[in-house]
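fold-stage: in
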Amino acid sequence: MKFMKLGSKPDSFQSEGDNVRYVSSELATDVIVIIGDVKFYLHKFPLLSKSARLQKLITTSTSSSNEENQIHHHEDEIEIAEIPGGPASFEICAKFCYGMTVTLNAYNVVAARCAAEFLEMYETVEKGNLVYKIEVFLNSSILQSWKDSIIVLQTTRALSPFSEEMKLTGRCLDSIASRASIDTSKVEWSYTYSKKKNLDNGMRKPQAVPRDWWVEDLCDLHIDLYKRAISTIEARGNISADVIGEALHAYAIKRIPGFSKSSSVQITDFAKYRALADSIIELIPDEKRSVSSSFLTKLLRASVFLGCDEVTGLKNRVGERLDEANLGDVLLYDVDLMQSLVEVFLKSRDPREDDLTVKASVAKLVDGYLAEKSRDSDNLSLQKFLSLAEMVSSFPRQSHDGVYRAIDMFLKEHPEMNKSEKKRMCRLMDCRKLSAEACAHAVQNERLPMRVVVQVLFFEQVRANNNGSSSTGNSTPEVIPASRSTNTTDQEDTECWDTDDIKALRGELANLRLAKNQQENNNKGKLIKGGGLGVSRVFSKLWSGKERSGDMISSSGTSSPGSVNDDSKSSSSTSKKH
């Protein structure tokens, strides 16, 4: 930190209690200057030689007040109601008048400069006066230093409006902006940068100055000064929008409590942090990629928690980039907010563009969100679950494991659901797109409707048969699962599946897997004789039982496992006739 010493005489100011300061001297003091609640017992002559304002006050015998500056006169007593910096800054000026040693630095130089201006300590009064010396110090040292300029800028806020009238705040902002905008190859001063550095075999590589080298040092500024600093830097036009975005991210992390945490924190001064969040939102550059999606989602979460008024624009930016969001960042959103973000995402998509990958990312995010939110049974109703899930039900997914997990978690937390509600929920899931692990879990899942379990078992058989018969060219016809159907009869609400048959089907499926594994080990290239026949017999028994009970699916365009087998046989017999 830069500093400047003025004067050469030893400091002879002493205190008597907290409210009295006096100069230890053989000469009796002849004037009392009252600053706030502190009395200074001083000598007239040193003060008269340096301060034009004190000259007027001391030489004037009248006790009338100067209304403009709120200064009151008494015989040997002067009361100054307001002086920039209070007693501390006046003492610096008084010591300078006595020629005593005074040390100026970034923390007190603005207060001393404002007080010297107030006391009219100009060159016209005496050459080399305090105003001149402080200006030299500011221009040659303080404003040439990166960190000192930031410290000085912070002190100007407490000294407003004096610092504004003297353009000290603007000079600090210009100094900061000029250095932040300089070519990074010319940065030779120290700065704070705590991001992880690249290491090579435990040795730090020599690195160029990063583009965002300045962002952390500005995080100590009050939001009012920070807004002005960022605006001044942007106005120079040398800093890219993504670096400005990085600066805002760093500031939010440091200044908004719990910004980077996955849970809410206790905040007492909501108005303060609400204004802070609003200001950060206002500063976000218009460029779409200027800030990360993670930053936007966290800022939206904080803004909603703090009750910010203007979050529509931020909500739109988050929704448009919902495919980039992380699950951990959106888990603190309520379901209504999440649904509105999906709506924004859908409206922002161009129907002419093929954005399957983007939609798949959103589908995965929503599946994970529903699975985690299902643990909160009080705030996620069936209707809200279905409403959000159906918004992305048509989105492409390589696997429906995420959908299954969300459904299973919800069923687990809501055991009171009836069969009709369970079936409506399970229609969101395509059993053909479950992984082997998900299938293994589903067939043992007693929370699922029996019909869904049977479908899972059936498609496991299809998958096993296809894998086993691939070498011989045999194929299994495509099956449209009844779980995706929306048109079913009321009879579907009553299930007549035989539990023993289901157990038998599971056993046959296990045998089929074993046979398949043996075949792969033996590299025979053919299915082991009889593999899958037991499963087919059990399926035939199950579906014939359903026909006898009258509980058949009457959905158009939807096939049950039994109907597929019948269609396959019919197709086969027709081909034989030809």
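fold-stage: in (second)
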Amino acid sequence: MDSLKNRSMGSRLFEIILHPDDLQKVLQHHERMKSAKDGEIIEAEYRMKHANGTYRVLRSRDIPFRRDSLGGVTQILGHAEDITDRKHMEDALRDSERRFALFMEKLPAAMYLKDLDGHVVFSNRFLNELFGWTDPVGKSTFDLLPVDVAQRMADDDRKAFDQGVMSTVEAVTDIHGLKRYFKTTKFSVPDSGGASLMGGISLDITEQKQTEEELRQSEEKYRTLLFSTGIGVGYWSPDGILLYINEISLKRLNGIKEDFIGKHIRDLIKHDDAEKYLERIHNAAISPQPSEYEDYVTLPTGKSWYLTIYARIVDSSGTVIGIQVLSIDITERKKAELALDVARKKLKMLNTITSHDIQNSAFSLSAYLSLAKKEFNDKKVHEYLDKETDLVQNIIQCLNVTKEFQELGTKPPIWQNVELVFCLAISHLDFGTISQHISLDGLEVYADPLLEKAFLHMMQNTLAQGVRVTEVSISCNEIEGGIRIIIEDNGVGVPGEEKEHIFERGYGKCGIPGLFLVSEILAITGITIQETGEPGKGARFEITVPKDVYRLAGNS
């Protein structure tokens, strides 16, 4: 560029090809050239329009070339270099550095660089805030951290330099005095000058470590609990390989872990039993609910009864990863049950013999009373004999009721269809003139096997005490916490003063038992009954069944 500045700046061409934003800058550059010394090089950057219409960045280096008689610069000599591509690269580099710096500042992990002597070259905001550092660059690890921590880190740094990369878990105390755990990866970073730097990234795993510790403590408590309660534990793969066995089980089997861990159930138990237990494992793997079994087992320590519970274990995706088996020694309980069963049978036999003898005596007494009436014609004597006969009949009827209910609670509850049981109950009675309305939606209840007897005696009461009854209905409706069965008739109902007493022992006649025994049968599985009818408009019995002892057809 060798034109005189004033003439150049005054030309229309120069104004056209220069970027408008750079025109003033170029004018100022030429103004500086007026006072430039000989040999002084003055640089300037500006944008100039290319023939294709785009602007290119030029860098010029100008020197005074010719002066007038007064020493003023009349011409300048310059060289302009197109630095557009380099400027783009520099801009891209600055953007990259800015993004990297922003990334380092926002990264929720500690990042740093150190030199071979352990001096900090770079540390991000997370690391600085962790320890409360304000200006760590140039300081060594020993300047910034306690000696024991710094020494441990320095040792790890040397290993990383030697190995190229290494990982470790570091425990440190932050500025607030809290213990923190970090998963740290250290690696050597070759520098452009040939030396190496130490790079490191540390991820905060404090919560993970705390969770692991809580889990470890929980498992320890679980093991202690199982050991103290004498529960054997086995953990099997879904295909029958033993993965874990606790000390209680080993003691029962008189062995050590190496005898069992990693072996298939067929290698541990004789064939027939192995197939039975393997089937249980397979069934547990496909069932969301635990399954229970009672077995009489022969072990090296002797024969015992065990309650065994099989439950599948699934991972977060729902995949079955194992079957946990808990084994509880119930030998003493089974012995007690056996002794109780023997005692119950003996009591039943004694009951039967006693009732039979009393009934025979009552029949004989009734016959003698009948003969006595024939021997005496005294009216007063006949009144006494009639009362005695009634008392004997009451004794006989009470014995019959006792015989019916002597099985109460002796057999385990079972699931029963309420509609079927109710129909069986009224089939024993004369219901020919009474219409029945049944709406139970397939309701089943878990109740004592004497449920049919309970319905039978309720309906006997209806026939005996429900004067002018022509209609009986039974229905149900679900309520909070269970379901309510409603039995209604259109008789005279229960007097208000008697409602609280009809379920008491001794209420009613023995020949037509009161509702005390009905209440007792239902109570075996937590079912309750009450009378809520309006006197004069019929009886209404509400039977409340808890949610865990009923089910509806299709929902079982």
